[in-house]
Amino acid sequence: MPHPLDAAAVRAWCGLALEALGRERERIDAINVYPVADGDTGTNLYLTLESATRAVEAAFDGHASTGTAPALADAIGAMAHGALIGARGNSGTILAQLLRGMTEVLATGDEPADGLADALRRALRRAAASTYEAVAHPVEGTVLTVATAAAEAAERATGDAATVARAAHDGARTALKATPGQLAVLGRAGVVDAGGCGLVALLGALADALSGEVSSAPVTVRADAPLPEAGGREATGHEADGCADADEGGPAFEVIYLLEADDSAVARLRTRLDGLGDSLVVVGGDGLWNVHVHVDDAGAAVEAGIEAGRPYRIRITHFGGATRTKEPELAARAVVAVVPGAGLAGLCADAGATTVSVRPGEPPASGELVQAIRQAHAREVMLLPNDPELRHTAAAAAEQARTEGVRVALIPTRSAVQGIAALAVHEPDRSFDEDVVAMTAAAGATRYAELAVAERQSWTMAGVCQAGDILGLIDGDVAVIGSGLAATAMTVLDRMLSAGGEMVTLVLGADIPASLAQRLEAHVRERHLAVDTVVYEGGQHAAPLLIGVE
Question: pLDDT category, 418, cuts 50, 70, 90?
Fold first, then answer.
């Protein structure tokens, strides 16, 4: 029995689509050959839609607490926002833009005068057009082509919203089968576009949600054959659906972040990032954007975001080599590090680590760490949580990765400066156990401190602090309460170096002037002979000052 296009239908759509992508995830991963193959299109789509589904459920829960029900605008808006903040890879970023395009039409607050069927036609048309706006260099034979065909089929359909959705699904399936003839790399591999497969599954779920009839038609991934088994993948490498620059070599890093910025700043950012790399996709609006690009200089991509606005949830993935080929070998060993700031993310990425950037108060879930381990694309992984509060989350992620065949060592780093010390001694050519011992020893030999600003009056190990006081935390406990950043930092350094030390590491937050680092370096030289000092820029979201003593 057909259902109206309302909030309940959006909720049902999310559930059915998540179920469909869960079934097809590994098989969609297996056909990911364009433009670089990392076998993660299905996974990225699933994780993006999972974030969208959580947002829709949160909208329903919020209304239930007040005894009301969400409107269509509330549900579709939540779905688009959840996809935007949780988008993974190019495929997830494009999916977020498709949903945003639909939202621009459906989230008007009232049922359209021309009826929900015609509103759905216009929503699908806007969704397809918006993807071409988001991708820097669109290519046909990709998910973009499939989305356009779905919109055109919906335009021709007559009847209710369920009929329109089914027509869009059928049009997408037909277009998907044609993609090997439109894109040479797909034709050579004998597969259809992976991102297009995901969109077909999504539209099939929409048609099922509106019609009340579950379709049994499978998603076709080969032009002339059923889905391959997960183990029979054509190629592996990093996915970037719908983008140009499908050469066998390419940039070394994938950089993804959320960005708070105005439209004019984002326009300039697009131009700058387009000159830095390829596979550029920027989606969003109304002050919140999701940025995805492949570059050789990850730090420059992050700095461009800082100049444009406020980037956060920064994820930098190293492709594992200077070139990206269709059949890359798994790296022998990789490092995954959780870092609190753009500067540290760039520093660790330049050292070859896959990074998971965190924002204060928003620790990563175990699923994010598992995905980072997968993206490291290595047989062995050293996981650096860099926070004592993440030990259980990191342990759960490590255990999950081990069930997938990855040998993971959880290095007990409790601070970013311990992570820097561990990364500095990482040597992939020695045995796994020797590397674990060396990295663990380097982290353990590094005392760590952090300067923070007290938010309210409170009792501490060092006495009572007042709001606005500078707190010096050594090894996690408040040891110094001061009124000035420089004086408190010097006191903390003296206490830490009283037990000896050879190297001081200073990590400056975004608002800390370089002159403070110079004062602290001079203090160390004058008071503590034969102790070297190294300074790094932590960037936004890092603490005002992190200190490490080795």
Answer: very high
